[in-house]
Every structure is written in C-alpha cells, then in structure tokens.
Amino acid sequence: MREDLPAGVAQFIAQHIESLSQLEVLLYARQNADRQLHPNEIANRLALTAEMSAGILADLVRRGLAVKAEACFRYHSDGGEVDRTIDLLAETYRVRRLAVTNEIYSKPLGKVKSFASAFRLRKEE
User: Fold this and answer.
1) Could you please report the per-residue DSSP string of 66-124?
2) Out of 38-47, 60-69, 116-125, least confident range
C-alpha cells in the first residue's frame, strides 16, 4: 500500500530523484551547502564508489541542484521553494524513511533505466 507523502515531496521525487543514493547525496550536499564537496568525501561518507558519487553529483548539476568548481561540487538551487521542498523531503525521509524509499522505487522502470545509463562507462573516442 502506497503511503501519502506531502505533495511537494512526492512531486520533487517524481521529477528529480531516481535512487536512494541520489537522495542521500543531495541531502548531504544540502546539509553542507556552505562548502565544496569532493566526490571522494561523499563516497566515503555514504559508502558509494567515487565514480558513483561523481556521476550522481554531475546529474545534480544537470538538474540545477549543484554546481561544479574544478574537482569539487556544492549544493545550489534558485532558493525559495526548492530549498523548502528539499528541507521537507529531508525531514520526511528522517521520520518516514520507508515511505520515501517506496516512493522512489515505485517509479516507472523507464526512468530508472534512463538514469542508470548515465553511469555506463563509455570508451574514449
């Protein structure tokens, strides 16, 4: 049975979150918005590979939720509603972790495959 989440949270997940790892990277970056984060730091902190961490951060940049400066990244948004929604998402994830996880993984398989393809290693041309 699907649990109801705040509308803004469910919509944000539908538009921007493809995996639990991506959510945790976003929340860690938001929590540390005042500083630059290296993919290795995030990988060590969240038990990811450095490649996975870098790929997720690059995806957050494409979504407008992070910026890249040389080898590091930093959380970034246009402020206002996005920040409030991410803060509400963080709180909802803290108190209703299973409901948020279910929401993420109940998405259509096509979106998940599209996100996963971003992490395929490609040969240099």
Assistant:
1) EEEETTEEEE----THHHHHHHHHHHHHHH-HHHHHHHHHTS-HHHHHHHHHTT-----
2) 116-125
